[in-house]
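Structure request: SDR family NAD(P)-dependent oxidoreductase, Mycolicibacterium hodleri.
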Amino acid sequence: MRLAGNTILVTGGGSGIGAGLAAALHRAGNQVVIAGRRQDALESVARRHPGMAYLPLDQSDAGAVRGFADEVVRRHPRLNVLINNAGIMRTEDLRAPDPDVIGDVISTNLLGPLLLTAHLLPALRRRPSAAVVNVTSSLAFVPKAGLPTYCATKAAMHSYTESLRFQLRDSSIRVIEIPPPRVYTDATAGDDYGVGVEGFVRDVVSLLASRPEADEVVVDAATLLRFAERRGDYQKVYAAVNYEESKGTQ
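Returned structure:
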């Protein structure tokens, strides 16, 4: 994926990783469009970066996704990069499950990006160089038991990304996965499992610049979980990730 001269849609662009990626890609010389539920947050980000555009989107609403896709292509016909970043995280106790939480997380984290990708693929296929970038999670590979539906949606997005990449292998569209570690909005926070937003975005952009043909962008802080099974220490890492939950059940 080239890092300049694109028209890029970033979902979940009003805060966190989405806002950070949008700002970095805007500075790199791209036309960036951010989308999200909260118009005030989108406006705040766009004001800080003159020339950045925004459109509201409730990704959990399937009907809204279709209308949004039509609108963003109408307003930005040169759109050639989709970054599926929007998502929500909810803790759950599956001994007393809440169907509303399950539905909200699945519709936002899984159905929403799948539908948006489906609606935008015809436009992306018309561009000589395009990309779909799916922001998943390192928890797709070593789940946190207190976030069961969240982790399941991210694992599903990883699987979908693999299939999408294979089916589009002979097209002009690159399919890239970014599985973040724990990302802190407080720049001073951090631990062995996480990194601040600024550091994460800086590392992602650096890796994309150095490896423009990469199918997956894994920052150092995400490698512990992402490659646990490959290294053969999955059970050890799983126990560490879920240490606090295990203490709570004793």
